[in-house]
Structure formats: C-alpha cells, structure tokens
Design a protein that fits this description.
It contains 16 helices and 22 strands. It has 555 residues and is α+β, with helices and mostly antiparallel strands. The strands form five sheets. Strands 9, 10, 11, 12, 13, 14 and 15 form a seven-stranded antiparallel beta sheet that branches. The chain starts with a helix and ends with a helix.
C-alpha cells in the first residue's frame, strides 16, 4: 500500500514538476518532515514549489504520505481547488457596487481572479472569496478575453451573473513583460525558533528575517568552491562563509560572505567543528548545501559597516515605535466605533421590539373590534331570518354571469319566477344554500355614492370546503374597489351561484370592504371563512351586463 502511494506521488511529481532541483527539494522536505513531524513547516516549504495552480494536485498526492493524526490539520493548512462551478448574481446598480476587485486577463497569460472582497459587500454576501477564478460572465466564457473586454462585459447588464471556482491563488504581474507569479491567498510563512526547522522557510534572528536557501554545486572541472569558512564565536556558534572568490562557482549560485552553513549533503553543520566541516566540504565533488543567508554578516563587518548597521537598526526601531503608537491610536478609534455600533444595534433592537409589541396590541384591538362587529351583525341580521311568505317581492333581474360552469344569476331568477314563488326556500333546501336575502336594504349599510344605483345584494354562503374565489383591486388601486376576478369550479361560491366575476365585494360578515386595500380585503375574507359558524355573509354589488375585461384597466 505504502509503495503504491509513493509510486503515485513520484509519478505526479514527474508529471507536474520539470525542474530536477525542485523535485529533489520536494523529496528532501518530506524526509525532514518525517524526522521532525512539524506539519506547519512542511506546508510552508511545499508552497515554495507548489507555486502555481497547475501544481495544486500535488497537495492531494502528498496527503496519503501524512500520518492520520496530522491529516485533518493538513487539510486546513493546504488550499483546495474546487472542481465544481458556483453561480452567483450581483446587482451592478447597487449603491455600494459589486464589492470586489479582479485581476488577470489574456494579456497576462492567466484567467480572471478575485483579488479583493469588500467586507459586508455584495460579493461577500453571496459567498465569493479572494482566490476565486471567474470562468463565465453573463453566460460567456472569458478564457480568450483581455482585461478591458471583461470589464466591458460586466457593464452590459444590470444583473451580473458570474460562474466561479475556488483556486486559492491569485496572479501577480504588473505588466505583460514581467514573468507571471502566483501568491496563495493565505500566504503562509513557516516560522520556528529552531533555525533549521525549514529548508526554505524563514527564520527570525535578532529581529532580522534570515532566509534559508539550498544550493547545488558541481565541482567537476573546477579548482574548488572558491570560499573560506570560519567558526563563529562562543555566543554565536556555527560555520560561516568568511570570504567569496569573485567568479567562483559559489559566487555564481549566490553564496555570500556571512552566510551560515547549516547542512551539507545531509550532514548537520550546526554543532560541527571547523576541521570536520572542511573535511565534509572536500569529501565530494557534488554538494547540496543549505545556508542561512546573512546570519553571520555582523561577524565580518568593518567598523564603518557596523556603525551604519547600528544606525539602520535605530531608524527601524523608531519606525516600529511610531507604527506601534499609530496602531494603539487606531485600535482606540476602532474600539470606540465598535462601541458606537453595538449601542446603535441595541437601540435598533429595542425599537424593533417596541414596534412589534405595538403592532401586536393594535392587531388584538382590531380583532376585538371585528368580533364585536360580527356579533352585532349576527344579532341584527340573524333575528330577521324569519320564514318568508310564499309570495316573493319583485327584485331587479340580475345580469347573466360570464363564467360558464356556475348557473348565471338570470337563469336562477328565471327558474324562481317560473316556479311556485318559493325559489328562496327551494334554493336553501338544496344542499343548505341560500342564494340571496330578499329583504336586505343596502342603504342601511352604504351611502348612495357607494351604491351608485347598482343592484346590491346580501348573500349567505354555507361553509363547505373552500370559498374558492379570487379578488383583485383595492381602495388604493386603479379599480378603487375589491372586485371578484374569478370563481373556481366546485368551490362554495360556485355551488352558491350568486357570485360572478366582476361583482364588487362590499362587506363580509359586517366588515365594510369599500375603503380597504387588497391585502386587507383578502385577510377579512380568510378570517370570516375560518371563524366559527356554518355560514358566511357577503354583500356584493352586481356587475353590469358586460364583459368583465371591459371594466378592468390593465397596467
């Protein structure tokens, strides 16, 4: 199993890494990790070779080589490239803009990547992240677009549709002539108190950053390395390069005076004496040397260089003190702003609670008034529901209903006139429905302007199933009234037969609907239908005998 995993890893390295030195480096840092078990240092070192999106699969290939106890932490420290595309929509007309910055384009040799996200902005609210690659904009692939074309494409629509995938890296290139570089979003710099903790990380010595560097020397065909080495003093032990011969192979690979040699061909130089160090350096014509750059530079300074270094340190110290003062002042301002924001949110929360309590009390008051009005309605009208005489008083002939399924009003009334004069009683005995009340006086409830010479009727509809009507309009609408827009087949209103599209709904269970909004009218209907009792009382103004569409103005 382990051999198979190692074989797959080596195959992946051969496929994705062309430089032989980088390949050796990967194997070296993995060997060092298995000795030190320092996962943070390993990830920091790996990022120096896995430094472009095409190499990101190496993180997955290395994972099986990590012990199980470290794999969860390894997953948290390493970036994960998303295989799936995510689509988001942003409003370009938003007052705060899209809430992101992008970089890249065809002229830079890379795709378009999100380089900055505005806190609490649009982009952050839909889940976009720094390091996301934008693949499509408004349905168009942007793989062959330059930066300016992409920006123009974003500006074509008010709602911008983006398809993105998370890469976790962003390109860095100031002009088309510069080489393309990549930075991790959470660029990790490996640090440790042990100077040898990382082959290519950063160490910190005396407040100065000291980089570890690995170089490869082949002395075949040369006269030697071209360097001199010295042992450090007791307070600063180690092997240091004390001089470099110009034009030598060591100068060509970047070794400098003051570099500390920490490892040669796997041999630790940290506690090695001078004689043994010389022997190791002369033992092979092929050397792999790890140094801490400039770690011992102060050991080989002239007096003038030392004074200049001390002056620079003093300037740096003053700058740090100034930065600290600014940071403290900024922190104070930020804390004050945070306190004000907390106070503002508390006030908003308190006002919201007060408004909710006020609304609850108003609703209770309205419901109490409605119950009181409903009781008065029942006392007023139910008492007048006495048996009617056989002779029915004449009433205006209502217009025919335009809806085909239910019987029209004129057909129902004609049937009553052709019968024995007991049409109301016959209608009520049929499934318990009563079409409309004959002795209803609309002037007792409405003004002459509200009646407007129309046929106003009071209907009693039995609560069987659902009322199944649709209404539209409202006092504040262009119609200026609540109008029945549809009567659905099989519902209580359809079975009743006295309601047709175009009728104005003027009252329900005594609640006036002549000056209410559409939502208030719908709520009144729902409450009346769901309240107690077997009947619901409706007052309607019959629509004139014309197509309902002629009466409604569409906007």
């Amino acid at each position: 199993m382990e051999r198979r995993v190692a074989k797959e890893f080596r195959h992946k390295v051969e496929l994705l890494v062309e430089n032989e030195a980088e390949k050796d480096y990967l194997y070296d840092v993995l060997r060092m990790y298995h000795q030190s078990m320092d996962l943070i240092v390993l990830v920091g070192d790996l990022k120096l070779v896995i430094n472009e999106p095409i190499r990101l699969p190496l993180f997955d290939a290395i994972r099986p080589l990590i012990p199980l106890k470290h794999q969860v932490e390894y997953d948290m420290l390493t970036p994960k490239r998303s295989r799936k595309l995510k689509e988001v929509r942003l409003d370009r007309t938003h007052p705060d803009g899209l809430g992101l910055s992008v970089r890249g384009g065809l002229e830079f040799g890379c795709g378009l990547f999100i380089s900055q996200i505005v806190k609490d902005g649009q982009a952050e609210s839909v889940g976009l992240q720094v390091g996301d690659e934008i693949v499509r904009i408004n349905g168009y692939s942007i793989s062959s677009c330059i930066h300016e074309e992409i920006i123009n494409l974003i500006k074509t629509k008010k709602i911008v549709s983006l398809k993105v995938r998370h890469v976790g890296m962003i390109p860095a290139k100031s002009s088309s002539a510069d080489p393309l570089k990549w930075h991790f979003v959470d660029q990790f710099v490996s640090e440790s108190g042990d100077k040898r903790s990382s082959v290519a990380g950063l160490a910190s010595i005396s407040g100065k950053e000291i980089k570890e560097k690995k170089v490869f020397l082949s002395l075949v065909g040369t006269t030697g390395m071209g360097i001199s080495i010295s042992s450090g003093p007791r307070q600063k032990p180690g092997i240091y390069i004390s001089s470099i011969k110009p034009g030598s192979v060591s100068a060509e690979v970047g070794l400098k005076m003051g570099d500390q040699i920490v490892e040669v061909n796997g041999v630790d130089f940290t506690n090695l004496d001078h004689q043994e160090a010389v022997r190791v350096l002369k033992s092979s014509r092929s050397l792999t040397i790890t140094v801490l750059t400039g770690a011992g530079a102060e050991l080989f300074m002239t007096d003038e260089e030392r004074l200049a270094a001390e002056a620079r340190r003093e300037i740096d110290r003053q700058e740090l003190m100034q930065q600290k003062r600014v940071a403290l002042e900024t922190n104070k301002i930020v804390k004050e702003q945070q306190q004000k924001e907390r106070q503002r949110r508390m006030e908003i929360s308190q006002k919201a609670a007060e408004e909710e309590e006020r609304y609850r009390k108003e609703m209770e008051k309205i419901e109490a008034e409605e119950r009181k009005h409903h009781r008065a309605w029942e006392e007023d009208w139910v008492a007048r529901e006495s048996p009617k005489s056989a002779k029915k008083s004449p009433s205006p002939k209502p217009p025919a209903s335009p809806s085909p399924p239910p019987k029209s009003k004129s057909e129902d009334e004609d049937e009553d006139e052709d019968g024995d004069g007991d049409g109301d009683e016959e209608q009520e005995s049929n499934d318990g429905f009563q079409k409309y009340v004959e002795d209803f006086d609309p002037h007792s409830m409405f003004t002459a302007e509200e009646i407007a010479d129309r046929d106003v009727r009071r209907l009693r509809v039995k609560k069987v199933g659902q009322l199944d009507i649709a209404v539209e309009g409202g006092f504040e609408s262009p119609l200026g009234k609540i109008v029945v827009s549809a009567v659905y087949e099989g519902g209580a209103a359809d079975k009743h037969g006295g309601i047709a599209p175009g009728d104005e709904l003027m009252a329900v269970n005594g609640r006036m609907l002549t000056r209410v909004t559409l939502s208030e009218g719908q709520n009144a209907l729902a409450r009346a239908w769901n309240s107690g009792g077997d009947w619901i009382d409706l007052v309607i103004a019959v629509s004139p005998p014309k197509d309902y569409e002629d009466e409604v103005t569409f906007f």
